[in-house]
Every structure is written in structure tokens, then in C-alpha cells.
Amino acid sequence: MSKRFACAIAASICVLTLSGLGTAQSKAESAAKDDTGFTSYVEFGGTTNSAGQVYEIDSSAGYTFTQHFGMDFGLPIYFVNASSSTTGSTSGSGVGNPSVDLRWKYPHTSLNYATVLTGSAPLGDKNLGLNTGHATFDWTNHFDHAFNQVTPFVEAGFSNTTSDSRLFVRPYTSFGLNTHFRGGMEIDVWKIFSVGAAGYEIAPFGNQTVYSRVVGPSNAGAQAGGPGGNHGRSFNAGHQITGSSSIATDNGFSTWLDASLNKYTDAEIGYTRSTQFDLNSVSFSIGLNVGRLLRADK
To answer: Which of 2, 27, 72, 296 has the most CB atoms within 10 Å of its CB?
Structure first.
């Protein structure tokens, strides 16, 4: 186990212990499941692939006002360990952009609907590619319906950045308008376990700027008319690359295994294949529902 990974584990334990005081960018999947009242969710996870490893402590604090509406505030912390084979590679830890999200959900016997609108302020560490220098937003809509143990779902959104997910903490972020789509299904297989699979598409339009988390600012990059780096990986070509929509385009699929360890703790392992970047990524996460735990103690 590397020294940086050990530090990341130690830091995550500290945050889990103090999570009632922490705030962060929430995940849309977890936000929709919170009970009414004070909510807080702390998650440690990361993704590893040939570009390196990016780990994240992601804790949220907010309030669910009704069965339909709630909000959260947040501040993620990242730990980046770039591959030594990447030219101009950089590693380190840094704070991401503080954020606020508004979430609505409308459960129904025919079709469940949830929507999350997230805004972030440009205050993260720019040297680690955690800040685009611009305020960003993401609006994601989720639809699902359960057929016994099988739950198909579809998501569609509009954003001016490329967001991370539980299954893919990316080696880059971006600034530029895009639409994004995701569709698949999740299956409850046995007691606490479920499995899932989904395809995704990120379709940018207009000029885009990609900010690498694995290439340092000493390799600033340049204007680019098309994808840079091997297999279109613009995040390997320089710290900041500006070009057409193709440099931020991505598509592929994911599979995962979820486990609800108890009513407070969730865990997940996953695999994501980016066909656009010819990139195979393995991810993990473990999360604690602090809000539910605190309410149980009352």
C-alpha cells in the first residue's frame, strides 16, 4: 500500500468520525434516499486506471424539508496519485469546489422521478485540476420503475462541466456546455446485495477546456482542434487543453456491485469502460449515512 493511499485512508477515518460537522458535494443517488429532517452522508471512494488514482472524501450536510424537497451543502477533498508513465505527471491532495444542491423527488407507483440542481463556486485547487476558474452547474433528472427485483432507470442532464460519479472519479474536469445521459438497470440479487449495469454518454457542444488532474501546470498544453494524447485522452496531453467539443466527449458503460451493510452503511465496487478514451477503470466507495445515525440516537 503506497504512503499516499495510506494517508487517504487515515484522512477518511478522521472525516467519518467528525462528519457531523462536515459539508460537501452530495451524490444524486444518495440524496434521493434521505429521510425528512437533517441529512448528512459521508463517503470515501476512488478510481484507479492507467492514468493513475484519484481518491475522494465526499461528505454532505443538509436538510430535507418535505418528502419531495431538500438541499445540501458540500466541500470534497481529493487525493491524486498520477501514473509515473504520464509525462509531466503530478500528485497531491487538495480541496475541491464548495457546492450547494437543490433536490426534488416525486415517487409514484407508475414512475419515480428525481431531479438535482447543483452549483459550485470556483475555489478548488487549480494546480490539481480541481477548479476550472468558473462557477459550474449541473442539472440531472432521474426516472426509474421497479419490476419486482429489477429496476430499470434513465438519467438525462445538462451541465457546463464534466462531473464525477460514484463509479468514475475522473482524471480530469472540464468547462464547457454538455448534455449527458445514462441508462441501465439494477437488480436485487440476494439480501443486502444488488448488481447493476449502465451505459453513459457525455455529449459536449461548443468550445471546451479540459483541466487534467494527473498532469501538472508546468505542462500547460495549448489550443487544440481535436482530441490530444493517446486514444483521444486530452488529459494526458497537458494540464489545460482548449479545443472543440471532441476533447471532452466520452461514452462507455459501467457495471457494479452494491452492498447495504446495515441501515447506516453502504459499499460499492465497480468497473467502467470508456470506449472514447480506451480506458478501463476500477472504483470503490464506502459511505456512512450520518444523518440517519444521529436520528437513531435520539
So the answer is: 72
